[in-house]
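JOB MANIFEST
job_type = single_chain_structure
chain_count = 1
residues = 300
[input]
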Amino acid sequence: MIDDFAGKIAVVTGGGTGMGRELVRQLAIAGADVAFCDIAPDTMAETAAIVADQAPNSRVLTHRVNVAVEADLEDFRDAIVHGFGSDHIHGLFNNAGVAGGGSMFTVPRDEWENVFSVDWGGVYLGCRVFLPLLTAAPAGVVVNTSSVNGFYASVGPDRPHTAYSAAKFAVKGFTEALQEDFKVNAPHLSAHVVMPGHIGTKIVANTMRHALHEPDAELAELLIATAEMFETHAPMTAEEAARVILQAVTDGEWRILVGDDAIALDEAVRADPEGAYRGEFFTLLGNQQTASQAQREGSE
């Protein structure tokens, strides 16, 4: 367990935007040296500039990586070893992810498998590549980002969500299984699974940015509006989410639900797992969320 990131080395995937950017920023402010990767050089540069301004004493290393490609992650690892002059790291935040891959019937296979490869493969390969560096540290943490869709495979009635949900279920199960693996083989390491609800990030916008090629003007306008709405209408910001995650990790919590909506959904699914995919479940869940929102607004 790590109770303080000051003086530590942390690695964050998907650090160009959203929760990844906030994890990088907050880790650096806490005194960590941070290596982070992303697939988009421009957003990485923006994150690095923010950190340079707000945490000038923190060393920052960036690297362009597709987390679904093991060779990319190996190059990233080698750059960290040489750039920081260290044979170990203290924290691995497997945060990178994309949305999409809804239906086995209507989504092209390559698109479906890309979502699964990034969201699950990026976590698995990240652990494979970086575990030797973590094991070499006196203590270390692996923090894998799943989702509420890692325990509930739906985003609403009549809306298939297979690739993303399958990947996030895999991340959750894998991280739970690491608990015993670490106890036996690396008791100085701890594994933590993060399950955010609706967080104000650019995951929708970023997915569209890298998956779509020259859409027509009308479609582009619709997609941009959808992406902006996802980010701006979220009940929790990326900054708040990262703060919750880092606090939970340093407190030793391994199962990290992020957001009131995530907590409510977890409770509802556990209360009625058999009925969780029936139509009336969505109505009940909507009523609960409305009541919770009214309660929050009344207490402000």
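[summary]
The first helix runs from residue 18 to 29.
The chain has ten helices and nine strands.
exit_status = 0
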